Amino acid sequence: MSGNDLGPALATDDDRVEPAAVDRQAGFDRLIAADERLEPRDWMPEGYRKTLIRQIAQHAHSEIIGMQPEGNWITRAPSLRRKAILMAKVQDEAGHGLYLYSAAETLGVDRADLLDLLHAGRQKYSSIFNYPTLTWADIGAIGWLVDGAAIVNQVPLCRCSYGPYARAMVRICKEESFHQRQGFEILHTLSHGTPEQHEMAQDAVDRWWWPSLMMFGPPDEASPHSAQSMAWGIKKHSNDELRQRFVDMTLPQAHVLGLTVPDQDLRYDEESGHWRFGPIDWAEFHAVLKGQGPCNAQRMEHRRRAHDEGAWVREAAVAYAEKQAQREASGAAA
Ligand code: BYC
């Protein structure tokens, strides 16, 4: 007897699952095509979820490791005003880490596990934080260049396809704008101060310029994740596009500061309206990613130690939450 003799084939379990999966994928594709936001309750492909966890976790790790180079200058800030501002900025970075770990947790991961991955060297943080802060002017250069690069990279993320990440970025970007201005103001003061102060500002910019350009990631042709992340609306622009936008935005500001950037090949291209810059040392970038930057070992050692020393705070928080839950349960029972 042939199958046809039985009339329409009976639906199997597989047949029933198949249309639902197709519908879910189609729903996801529609949201992405319409440039709408996905929320944690929405179905999403596993690759999309994993990509977001990778990027948001790396971003969160960068925020908390990023507290170290600046924290290095809190006790040595040149005035009470500068100290208060720097402390507020470093606290903001901790807050950014918290929003981002919370955003990652909406994807079904635990913050504690993400931190374990960072400490085991299995998740990355931004290359930029593996450089030392040698003088007070470095605090200005970080604010102006590093936070400036962060803004250019992160403003488009406010419109990314995953709602919790996009919303976290809105607040982070507002705070980053203030950070960038305070860095600019530090450098402006130094640059227009004594010749020694000017020299110190120039030296800091010379050291932070190229690492800031590397923050945007490898060139487009060597960026394995960009194409898929852009198709999913996680990234809105390519690494090279954002790097160019940063250079175009920053060079007029360097002029106002009275400082230069260390690039012999730099020239303004009238036709395109863009600043053309010289080759980036990608060997240095890859070495830093492999753990061979000037401060990788120090940053990780400090982070692990801070984590271990904070164990009692986490234990106390858990004990307190358990006590509250017990009180509520016994209150409800009474
Ligand atoms: N450093 O295919 P690609 C801040 C990795 S916080 C280290 O282009 P993707 C601040 C990349 O992860 C600043 N690793 O990747 C805080 C990937 O490795 P895996 C942090 C880098 O994800 C405190 C591989 O290279 N900002 O501003 O499409 C104080 C291939 O790259 C870097 C964010 O995290 C790097 N620079 O694009 C002050 C923003 N670049 O995962 C300031 C959010 C690339 O395959 N993240 N890699 O092992 C992004 O926008 C994107 O993840 C990136 C990279 C543009 C960074």
Helix content: 55-70%
Radius of gyration: 24 Å
- Characterize the biggest β-sheet: 2 strands, antiparallel
Unreliable spans: 1-16
Give the number of helices: 13
Mind explaining what this structure looks like?
- It is a single chain.
- By secondary structure, this protein is mainly alpha-helical.
- Helices cover 66% and strands 2% of the residues.
- It has a two-stranded antiparallel ribbon.
- β1 (267-269) and β2 (274-276) form a beta hairpin.
- α6 runs antiparallel to α7.
- The longest helix has 29 residues, at 163-191.
- The termini are far apart.
- The model is unreliable at 1-16 (pLDDT under 50).
- Residues 54-55, 58-59, 62-63, 66, 93, 124, 126-127, 146-147, 150, 153-154, 214-218, 223-226, 229, 235, 239, 289 line the site of benzoyl coenzyme A.
Can I get a quick summary?
This protein is mainly alpha-helical and 334 residues long. The protein is 66% helix and 2% strand.
